[in-house]
Amino acid sequence: MIFAENYDILNKVLSPKRLELIRTINDNEHISVNELARLLKRKQEAISRDIKILKQMGIINVKRVGNKKISHIEKYYVVVPLVG
Known about the structure:
The protein has four helices and four strands. With 84 residues, it is α+β, with helices and mostly antiparallel strands.
């Protein structure tokens, strides 16, 4: 579970493109960064940047399988306080 301090932070981290990336990683086991870029019609550099940010937040993790880096979901829930 990930805790977001407020909705502004949540909206920055979980942009529509990153949510699409998370869903695609979840739906496609053993998919590489290059395959994600091709499937999502985005530049490899943008996918790598988003993966790095999501990894720093603890949402995904990356492991090496052969010569590929494979991302997988680590956290499936986000908690945001309603007030405060």
